[in-house]
Design a protein that fits this description.
The structure holds two protein chains of two kinds. Chain A has ten helices and twelve strands. Chain A is an alpha/beta fold. In chain A, the strands form three sheets. A six-stranded mixed sheet of chain A has the order 6-7-8-3-9-10, with helices on both faces. In chain A, α5 (110-122) runs antiparallel to α6 (138-151). Helices cover 73% and strands 0% of the residues of chain B. Classes of the chains: A alpha/beta, B mainly alpha. At the A-B interface, α2, β6, α3, α5 and α6 of A face α10 and α11 of B.
């Protein structure tokens, strides 16, 4: 379980997180939704220990993320942020191998190699395994990075806007792979996502944020209502039920 | 504990690229060796294998000047190239190297200050001052980088070049006031003509540091993936940065004191290696060392024969060759429409 207690983050005069307390249960897919500037990515980044909080604390399975050594945390929790602009000339397989770094420090065992090949297979990257990252499309590269964090084999996987830059087909494929990482590999996946309908269709829980606060948490059924969405996004959203999934219609 | 991804078949063919990777490396090693032998027999005084065997005086010149010179070229070439590679990984920018980050200029300022205040200081003190100054200068560069928002691939080296120019201007001003311009010229332009036994041995330390880079290669590669990914896999990012910058500073400081600045080497060599071998540092370091040594030895041979019996500084040859290759790299990038 990931537990946040009174988490606070301030940039100058701007309070991005206002004493957020939250529990994210183990297992399944948890989506964090909310308007721009709600503090979603900041919160995820702090949980993933890439950013220091100004107050409060985060524990992952009762381990304080700030006090636990980096290498220990790296075996329990992994985080992937949106793609950075510099693309290293590594092959896909080499990149994925570095996901084993917390376990092997670069000296890969037979078990590490098994994990690498499994992660490549899981994200259908075998045909691209020996290509350089800078020769791939944005979507392929995104998949390679996801394969790397899956290869890290942590209980918790945090993904910041994993659908960024993906077209419809690849977005659906990515969400299926996230779902299956939770279902078949038993990972607890936490994602920040903008598309509420993807969140509704693929999550077990949704955390809705606004103005640096968590305003609602619940199942997709509980969150996907006109009232809640109005409160979160300040927008009128009509809810339809399509094939057992609640879909928000807000385009006009 | 986390569930294991289940799929059999480890990719055996990829695990031992051993021989396939070793053969070209061996060929490159042989080429550098051949160039080094050639370098031993090129120069103002005529030395051939036959004379070496017959003439004790020729043998003395050979051991006193030729062998140290070639060794110095090999060591400095490898080390400066590795310094460039390390900086490019740590800054995640392909255009950063000691002479585009203020490192080399700071080293020169350091030696100048020591020469000014402690004129009789032994070489060790000068080298230490150069290294400390190089460290401070590089630290300043990284500090500025952290404060600027726009980190496009060309802004970063521009910042470094400007910083280097400012430090260089201060250095020149001081040298001018205290009549030390001539000494300054020696440090600013790489030149191996003064290398003799007893005056190059510090470069072995630098060669050793190039090997150290191989030992921390995986950490450097991970750092090259960016701070986020480095922290995510549990790497102590700050320590790796500090160690990397320390290695770069010592390599630059020692090299500037012993032979002078060697521009472009750290830029061109790692980029050529990256284009072919990629950015996996453990695979790249041997290539960077060999190519760096080979290029520097070759440029030095050119600098010795182009105006026989006179020599031009190898730094000038490097400047011309480096600029040409650098332009080619830029144009090639554009042709590929890359970032």
């Amino acid at each position: 379980m990931i537990e946040l207690t009174d988490l606070r983050k301030v940039y100058g005069d701007d309070t991005v997180l206002r004493d957020v307390s939250l529990r994210i249960e183990r297992g399944g897919v948890t989506s964090i939704i909310g308007p721009n500037g709600a503090g979603k990515s900041t919160m995820l980044t702090i949980i993933g220990r890439l950013l220091k909080a100004d107050g409060g604390r985060v524990t992952v399975d009762d381990l304080d993320t700030e006090r636990t050594p980096g290498r220990e945390m790296a075996k329990r929790l992994s985080i992937l942020r949106q793609e950075n602009r510099f693309t290293t000339r590594l092959t896909v397989r080499d990149l994925v191998r570095f996901g084993r770094y917390p376990h092997s420090q670069g000296r890969l065992t037979a078990e590490d190699h098994r994990h690498v090949e499994a992660a490549l297979g899981f994200l259908d990257l075998e045909p691209l395994a020996d290509r350089f990252l800078d020769e791939l499309s944005g979507g392929q590269r995104q998949r390679a990075y996801v394969a790397m964090v899956l290869c890290q084999d942590t209980d918790y996987v945090l993904l910041d806007e994993p659908l960024n830059n993906l077209d419809m087909k690849h977005a659906v494929a990515m969400m299926r792979q996230i779902r299956s990482a939770a279902d078949t590999l038993g990972k607890s996946v936490v994602i920040v996502i903008h598309d509420i309908n993807f969140a509704s269709a693929y999550s077990d829980r949704i955390v809705a944020m606004r103005d640096g606060r968590v305003v609602h948490t619940g199942t997709p059924e509980e969150i996907m209502t006109p009232e809640v969405l109005k409160e979160v996004f300040d927008l009128d959203v009509r809810i339809e039920e399509v094939g057992g999934t609640r879909v928000g219609v807000y385009y006009r | 504990m986390a569930t294991t991804l289940s799929r059999p078949e480890p990719g055996d063919r990829t695990r031992s690229p051993g021989l396939r990777a070793a053969l070209p490396l061996a060929a490159a090693f042989a080429a550098v060796l051949a160039l080094s032998v050639l370098s031993l027999f090129v120069g103002a005084s005529d030395i051939s294998v036959q004379r070496l065997l017959e003439d004790p005086e020729a043998r003395e010149i050979f051991l006193l000047s030729r062998v140290p010179r070639t060794l110095a070229l090999v060591l400095a070439g490898a080390a400066m190239s590795v310094a460039g590679l390390i900086m490019q990984m740590l800054t995640q920018n392909r255009f950063v190297e000691p002479s585009t980050a203020g490192t080399a200029e700071s080293a020169a300022l350091g030696i100048l200050l020591v020469t000014l205040f402690f004129p009789g200081a032994p070489l060790t003190v000068k080298i230490t001052a150069a290294c400390v100054a190089a460290l401070l200068g590089t630290g300043l560069f990284l500090g500025i980088l952290q404060r600027i928002a726009l980190k496009s691939s060309l802004i970063v080296p521009l910042v470094g070049i400007m910083l280097g120019a400012v430090i260089g201007a201060v250095t020149t001003f001081i040298a001018l006031r205290f009549d030390l311009l001539q000494s300054l010229g020696v440090w600013q332009s790489g030149d191996f003509s003064g290398i003799m036994r007893g005056r190059y041995e510090q470069l072995w330390l630098v060669g050793l540091l190039a090997v150290t880079a191989y030992l921390i290669a995986d950490r450097l590669t991970v750092a090259g993936l960016g701070r986020d990914i480095a922290v995510n896999v549990g790497l102590d990012h700050r320590t790796v940065m500090a160690v990397g910058v320390g290695i770069v500073a010592v390599i630059s400081g020692v090299t500037v004191v012993v032979v002078g600045m060697l521009p472009f080497l750290g830029l061109v060599v790692p980029n050529l290696v990256s284009m072919t071998v990629g950015d996996h540092v453990r695979r790249g370091v041997p290539w960077v060392c060999l190519l760096g040594s080979g290029v520097l030895v070759l440029c030095d041979i050119v600098s010795r024969v182009i105006r026989m019996p006179f020599e031009i500084p190898v730094g000038s040859v490097l400047g011309v060759v480096g600029a040409a290759v650098f332009l080619y790299m830029l144009l090639r990038r554009n042709a590929h429409g890359a970032r």
